[in-house]
Amino acid sequence: MSKYIVTCCSTVDLSKEVLDSKGIPFVPFTLNLNGKSIKDDYVSYPIEKFYEDLKNGAEPTTSQVNSDEYTAFFEKYLKEGYDIFHITVSSGISGTINSCRIAAEELNEKYENKVHYLDSLCCSGGYGLLTLMAKDNLDKGMSLLENYKDIEEKRLHLEHWFFSTDLTAYVRGGRISKAAGLIGTALQVCPLMTVSKEGKLEPVEKIRTKSKAMKMALSKMIELADNGLEYDGPVYMNQSDCLEDAETLASMIKETFHNIKEVKIFYVGTVIGAHTGVGTVALYFMGKEREY
Description:
Radius of gyration: 19 Å
Helix content: 40-55%
Distance between the termini: 38 Å
Oligomer: single chain
């Protein structure tokens, strides 16, 4: 069996410590702010400073990884004799997989070792969880082909449920109309959203008040998690500078699912956070195949 590595993009929204400890190389997206380009490498722009700047009115934009950046990233591992299993953030959210494809096709003609890439159809920490599963498969001795097929099958069983208490960034990004945003803010609407089969963000239900949104997210987990209330798989969460809200939902989950001892919580990273703004809580777990 040829040796290979699992790689990803920075938008897995885990932490550099986790990625380093697992030995998962990542290629960074780019954040653009005040005329400067900042690499989303978990170091160049501390996450606490990022959210402080958002609260003070910063409006960053983002740039996906281009084909030249992918080529430089992949080539160093190909030269070391590795095949590569690269997992991209959902094509329903970013077009970066097209840049990945261009780089892979050119490099696969040049090198005996190959780049294999997969559309995660996931985003943020859901994408991160899927990537960690692929690395675990590698560590267990699974071949690249077996690993690819396993992750391809699991990706639509990775549930994403999230809500936001601040609609500002969603309005700015065009995901919610300005009128709906004003009304939603006035009525304390916290829209419950998911990621569809096509890997796109989909609003599911308009819910008034944060506490009701948390209960609805929990009810979705009760409904959809593998083995229902007996679920004992991984539970990951992201939060965009609203840790207390995430911890409240995590406590509700542990009180409801008695086989779950830990809920891992990470920040929404700078690239995804530029589109969500503050106040978003996201929940990920393994469950039934996506319905939406």
